[in-house]
């Protein structure tokens, strides 16, 4: 059984009750099918009510669910002939980011994504999906390769953020991220970015400069984690729940802010309930997106991407400058 | 005894009221104490020396307009896009009130001043960040002003120089602030592809989203001595790796040692060095020999 989250408790309790009644019916002569039916109807309503009214904090928990499908899961469902490619050719191999070549309905593509582990052992190997500079440099190497061979690039974003470590700083974490933003802006092939879990700050953005940017319904994308925001803004990390609401980090929020192109719907109860079905939802959007982008010329692709980010920002222009220059 | 009772409150009168004044701001007083060597000197003298300590060479923070004055030939500077004003994209509580407060305190309308001016006769687009305004953090206005300055440099075919001083992204603008990293980097990419020259000079402090975007994207990346430069905060790194970091961690000198900078340039040599670089990038005619 999949791990349950705090807000799902009423559903779990009701499910257990139904299971209990069913077991009782099977064992004894008493017919409880009417009661079971009533409860099942109620469960259906309850599920709909809870899952259709998820609060930002609920979505944060969904996005962080240990069983939430990862980049490699989606690669398996969505692509054929995936060959993983390793290393940045400069320093090392960072398993917090995976990438390689594959086919998407016969079309050669390059796929890159952050990669969390499924268990502690894998998480240690993959540094919990938090990349070092070599991860970003590997990603860029693969993107440049994709450009050379005119392959579209698909990026899956799923990281708490770039790793805040000593070695990462020494090897130029800032520069590695900045370089990716800079180079991705100029790549002459289609780029589609999909946030599948947590989109943590610059570490997420470094794979996130695309012609189209999508988010799964229960994924988040933010400048700082809710805990970090709470600590920074209110000196109180326990206000994370409030921060999750104030900071506008959910997929619907970002759609409203005009930062993402669309929200990809999720399986009810979260992507982890049915990864295969979830991959189908992604597939629909990805196919539509790529079809549209492939029809654009190289120049149009670069321009469309430029204008997309150029337009983000909110400010007003005063007729007269009211500040003082000395 | 009754007398004592009346006297008591008097003693309690003296409480320390937290001051609103920024800690590193040059105080109103005529004297300034250097935080590094602790020596005291005349503020005017310090100012004349470009805010470099006369005794130990410590680089005190400098305001954006002081920086411009120290670099740009007199009478050649024209500020551009000063009329861009902050909005509140997330409807973040009390955000605009804080902006207004900083505006009054710093006499700046946002955390960056942009314009066109000449450095020893070389026409240049320039952006100078000021950490006095919201820690120099980057929101929509900072991102937009930088992009507009880069686009103007592109249009005029002149170099672009930035002086960074920033704590990173502007929290109160959330994801919109993060996207300014993408926006500024994209503008610099376009500028670069068109052959534009971009020089980044990182000053104290240059961290987070600013260090992970335009600050690191110069054709030449320089820093001032002692400047704090890095992606993640020192405290967060110490908590993550559970070890104490060396004292010079994330200083300009540390970055230079690790191959992350072209050079560390003292403030009083900056104008000359920039002039040489600008000269080297001037279009050349035929060989003279």
From TrEMBL, chain B:
<feature type="zinc finger region" description="C4-type">
    <location>
        <begin position="34"/>
        <end position="56"/>
    </location>
</feature>
<dbReference type="GO" id="GO:0005524">
    <property type="term" value="F:ATP binding"/>
</dbReference>
<keyword id="KW-0443">Lipid metabolism</keyword>
<feature type="binding site">
    <location>
        <position position="34"/>
    </location>
    <ligand>
        <name>Zn(2+)</name>
    </ligand>
</feature>
<comment type="subunit">
    <text>Acetyl-CoA carboxylase is a heterohexamer composed of biotin carboxyl carrier protein (AccB), biotin carboxylase (AccC) and two subunits each of ACCase subunit alpha (AccA) and ACCase subunit beta (AccD).</text>
</comment>
<keyword id="KW-0067">ATP-binding</keyword>
<dbReference type="GO" id="GO:0016743">
    <property type="term" value="F:carboxyl- or carbamoyltransferase activity"/>
</dbReference>
<dbReference type="GO" id="GO:2001295">
    <property type="term" value="P:malonyl-CoA biosynthetic process"/>
</dbReference>
<dbReference type="InterPro" id="IPR029045">
    <property type="entry name" value="ClpP/crotonase-like_dom_sf"/>
</dbReference>
<dbReference type="Pfam" id="PF17848">
    <property type="entry name" value="Zn_ribbon_ACC"/>
</dbReference>
<dbReference type="GO" id="GO:0009317">
    <property type="term" value="C:acetyl-CoA carboxylase complex"/>
</dbReference>
<feature type="binding site">
    <location>
        <position position="56"/>
    </location>
    <ligand>
        <name>Zn(2+)</name>
    </ligand>
</feature>
<keyword id="KW-0862">Zinc</keyword>
<feature type="domain" description="CoA carboxyltransferase N-terminal">
    <location>
        <begin position="30"/>
        <end position="289"/>
    </location>
</feature>
<dbReference type="InterPro" id="IPR041010">
    <property type="entry name" value="Znf-ACC"/>
</dbReference>
<keyword id="KW-0275">Fatty acid biosynthesis</keyword>
<dbReference type="Pfam" id="PF01039">
    <property type="entry name" value="Carboxyl_trans"/>
</dbReference>
<dbReference type="InterPro" id="IPR000438">
    <property type="entry name" value="Acetyl_CoA_COase_Trfase_b_su"/>
</dbReference>
<feature type="binding site">
    <location>
        <position position="53"/>
    </location>
    <ligand>
        <name>Zn(2+)</name>
    </ligand>
</feature>
<feature type="binding site">
    <location>
        <position position="37"/>
    </location>
    <ligand>
        <name>Zn(2+)</name>
    </ligand>
</feature>
<dbReference type="InterPro" id="IPR034733">
    <property type="entry name" value="AcCoA_carboxyl_beta"/>
</dbReference>
<dbReference type="GO" id="GO:0006633">
    <property type="term" value="P:fatty acid biosynthetic process"/>
</dbReference>
<dbReference type="GO" id="GO:0003989">
    <property type="term" value="F:acetyl-CoA carboxylase activity"/>
</dbReference>
<dbReference type="InterPro" id="IPR011762">
    <property type="entry name" value="COA_CT_N"/>
</dbReference>
<comment type="function">
    <text>Component of the acetyl coenzyme A carboxylase (ACC) complex. Biotin carboxylase (BC) catalyzes the carboxylation of biotin on its carrier protein (BCCP) and then the CO(2) group is transferred by the transcarboxylase to acetyl-CoA to form malonyl-CoA.</text>
</comment>
<comment type="similarity">
    <text>Belongs to the AccD/PCCB family.</text>
</comment>
<keyword id="KW-0276">Fatty acid metabolism</keyword>
<keyword id="KW-0863">Zinc-finger</keyword>
<keyword id="KW-0444">Lipid biosynthesis</keyword>
<comment type="pathway">
    <text>Lipid metabolism; malonyl-CoA biosynthesis; malonyl-CoA from acetyl-CoA: step 1/1.</text>
</comment>
<keyword id="KW-0808">Transferase</keyword>
<protein>
    <recommendedName>
        <fullName>Acetyl-coenzyme A carboxylase carboxyl transferase subunit beta</fullName>
        <ecNumber>2.1.3.15</ecNumber>
    </recommendedName>
</protein>
<keyword id="KW-0547">Nucleotide-binding</keyword>
<keyword id="KW-0479">Metal-binding</keyword>
<keyword id="KW-0963">Cytoplasm</keyword>
<dbReference type="GO" id="GO:0008270">
    <property type="term" value="F:zinc ion binding"/>
</dbReference>
């Amino acid at each position: 059984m999949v791990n349950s989250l705090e807000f799902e408790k009423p559903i779990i309790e009701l499910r257990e009750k139904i299971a209990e009644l069913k077991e009782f019916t099977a064992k004894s002569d008493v017919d409880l099918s009417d009661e079971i039916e009533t409860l099942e109807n109620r469960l259906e309503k309850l599920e709909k009510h809870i899952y259709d009214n998820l609060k930002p904090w609920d979505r944060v928990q969904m996005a962080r669910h240990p069983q939430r499908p990862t980049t490699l899961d989606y690669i398996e469902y969505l692509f054929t002939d995936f060959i993983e490619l390793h290393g940045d050719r400069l320093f090392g191999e960072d398993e917090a980011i995976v990438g390689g070549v594959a086919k998407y309905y016969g079309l050669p593509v390059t796929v890159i994504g952050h990669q969390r582990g499924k268990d502690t052992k894998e998480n240690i190997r993959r540094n919990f999906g938090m990349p070092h500079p070599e991860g970003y440099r590997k990603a860029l190497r693969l993107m440049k390769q994709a450009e050379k061979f005119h392959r579209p690039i698909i990026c899956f974003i799923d990281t708490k953020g770039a790793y805040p470590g000593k070695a990462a700083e020494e090897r130029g974490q800032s520069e590695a991220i900045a370089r990716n933003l800079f180079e991705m802006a100029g790549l002459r092939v289609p780029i589609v970015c999909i946030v599948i879990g947590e989109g943590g700050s610059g570490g997420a953005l470094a794979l996130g400069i695309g012609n189209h940017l999508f988010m799964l319904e229960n994924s988040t994308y933010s400048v700082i984690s809710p805990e970090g925001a709470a600590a920074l803004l209110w000196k109180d990390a326990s206000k994370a729940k409030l921060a999750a609401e104030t900071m506008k980090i959910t997929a619907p929020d970002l759609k409203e802010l005009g930062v993402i192109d669309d929200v990809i719907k999720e399986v009810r109860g979260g992507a982890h309930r049915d990864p295969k079905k979830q991959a189908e939802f992604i597939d629909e959007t990805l196919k539509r997106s790529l079809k549209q982008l492939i029809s654009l010329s190289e120049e149009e692709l670069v321009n469309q991407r430029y204008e997309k980010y150029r337009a983000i920002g909110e400010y007003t222009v005063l007729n007269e400058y009211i500040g003082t220059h000395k | 005894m009754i007398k004592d009772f009346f006297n008591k409150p008097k003693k309690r009168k003296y409480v320390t009221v937290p001051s609103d004044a920024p800690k590193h701001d040059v105080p109103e007083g005529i004297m300034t104490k250097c935080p590094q060597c602790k020596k005291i000197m005349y503020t005017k003298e310090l100012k004349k020396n470009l805010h470099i300590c006369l005794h130990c060479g410590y680089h005190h923070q400098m305001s954006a307009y002081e920086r411009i004055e120290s670099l740009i030939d007199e009478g050649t500077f024209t500020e551009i896009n000063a009329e861009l004003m902050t909005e509140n994209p997330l409807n973040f509580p009390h955000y605009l009130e804080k902006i207004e407060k900083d505006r009054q305190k710093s006499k700046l309308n946002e955390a960056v001043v942009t314009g066109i001016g000449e450095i020893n006769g070389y026409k240049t687009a320039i952006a100078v960040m000021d950490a006095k305004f919201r820690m120099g953090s980057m929101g929509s206005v900072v991102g937009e002003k930088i992009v507009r300055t880069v686009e103007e440099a592109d249009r005029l075919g002149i170099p672009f120089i930035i002086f960074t001083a920033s704590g990173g992204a502007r929290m109160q603008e959330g994801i919109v602030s993060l996207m300014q990293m993408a926006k500024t980097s994209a503008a610099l990419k376009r500028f670069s592809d068109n052959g534009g020259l971009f020089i980044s000079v990182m000053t104290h402090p240059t961290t987070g989203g600013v260090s992970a975007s335009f600050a690191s994207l110069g054709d030449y990346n320089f820093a001032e001595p002692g400047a704090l430069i890095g992606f993640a905060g020192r405290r967060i790194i110490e908590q993550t790796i559970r070890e104490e970091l060396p004292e010079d961690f994330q200083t300009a000198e540390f970055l230079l040692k690790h191959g992350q900078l072209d050079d560390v340039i003292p403030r009083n040599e900056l104008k000359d060095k920039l002039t040489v670089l600008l000269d080297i990038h001037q279009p050349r005619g035929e060989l003279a020999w």
